[in-house]
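Exercise 7. Predict the joint structure of the components listed below.
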Amino acid sequence: MLLRLIRKRREMFTGYLFVLPWIIGFLLFMAYPIYFSLNMSFNRVLITSEGINTTFVAWDNFKYAFLSDPQYVEELVVFIQQVVFIIPIVVIFSMLVALLINQPIRFKGLFRGIFFLPVVITSGEVVKELFSQGATSIPIVERYGIVQFLEANFSSTWSEPIITVIQQLIIILWYSGVQILIFLAGLQKVNSQIYEAASIDGASPWEIFWKITLPSIKPFILVNIVYTTVDLFTNALNGVIGLIKEHMFKLNTGFGYATALAWIYFAIIFVILLLVVLIFSRNEDYNPRKAGR
Amino acid sequence: MKQGIASIMRAAKAADKKTFENGWNKSKKFLLGRQGNDGIVFKLVVYALLISIGFVYLYPIFYMISQSLKSLQDLLDPTVLWLPKSLHLDNYIRAWHVLDFPRAFGASLLNSVLPAIAQTVSCALVGYGFARFRFPGKNVMLALILLTFIIPVQVVMIPLFLLFQQYGLLGSPLPFIVPALFAGGIKSALFILIYLQFFKTVPKALEESAQIDGAGAFKTFFRIILPISVPAIVVVFLFSLVWHWNETYTTSLYLGESMRTLPLKLQSFDLAYSQTYSSSNVGMDAVNINESIKLAGTMLIILPLLTLYLFAQRWFVEVIDKTGITGE
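Solution:
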């Protein structure tokens, strides 16, 4: 009894020792800055040569963001509209590619190599350069007048985000490298006996996909939606983040206002992620992966 | 009588249908395959899709290579689409000078290799701690790790900047190395999770036998666990290296003017170009900046990564789908 207690204590202690670097790092480089910036968001901050000048303004920064700032809400709405389109594109596309690569095909290594390549080179600056040189849109799309069609048939609030999505299609697809990896990992964990059993019972590939493959990679769809959302929201190229950065060094609004914007932004990400998780974990129905074990 | 004829007719029809079905099945087996995914049509569709998606994926890179090798004449000539009339390497020479390549490359190396090493080691320790030991507060900590993953850097950037300024770390790679040593920094949450997932797949019997032989937890970790975790280590190191290499947002803030990494140099490429090839040396060098030169610069920046990827690609790809980046 005593021995077991001692062993438990020791396990606890070693566990803490291993995790200790993270605890220190979190307190120093995360918790303290978070506290600091939360504090700042309720202040008017002026960074002068003598130091930092703060005056408490309560919720003024947040009020200003929603009621008076000419750009913030607009940028936010445009960005969220784009995200609504991009997430399904990335998730469906990466699932498709993962399914294709998972087939028994030749040159598997080559194809995988191609699809993971963008993970290595998609950096803010390089992508920006490619954008501005027009290397990122598929020429066929422009040629067949899809853009004009959309412009003519939809109101500009919805056609604009769709058009930007189309024009950035390659880059959007480039952002699905990690997601393809996640889906591949998921697909390879599905028990192959289930597939055999299904095809012996005469199920068509179509049925197998909907009834076996899709339900068993469902958790990975959730992981991917979350990952894509976080990736898009923390990407330095989007307009909202640009705006936040801009305000940081503006004299009349300053750092306090910028942090307030960042916190509103974070709250929105958090709510969206929460919604996604809630929707996806609501019906925990039949899961062949677990049944197969 | 009438009924008899009708029944014969019916039988004949059924027989007809049967022979038809037989033939259909045979050709179907050939075209579509028995299992649904080994027929010729299916294979063709798969390859066609893979090749066309692959082309779309590589399009920007092909475009970049082709454009960066064009001379001004080729660039303006609408008949020259993909293959330049002559390989114009001058673009690369100019871009090399403008980027101040050797120095910027050194800065990039310092700011990506060192933090990557620190992150690889520290996240492994932390991941192992979470994967193997039970202690109070573990779930809260895991939740906090997930939280750090979704908090935008912008929220903590300025406080960190002031903190680093206070301790005089700015202008050196230290603002990246120090947090990395403490399992923080760029996307460290993801790395901790990768390790955690990987260490969970390592059989416990290995550690138990080491412990019976009298090895402590840390000795077991460094002698037994780390050597068999090479796949996870390689993946984390590569990801960390690549993400640090590509980072411009925080590097520009923390490094300031004292150190310019390659992507930062690209940011100010236009200005640097006009300074390097300004009116002072009119004559041969008076070529205005054009797309080709800028794309050559871009190419130079991703070239080190492409080379690395070429060698590490096998690991990158094989390893992740074996260990699984995520669990259930």
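Discussion. Chain B has a mean pLDDT of 78.
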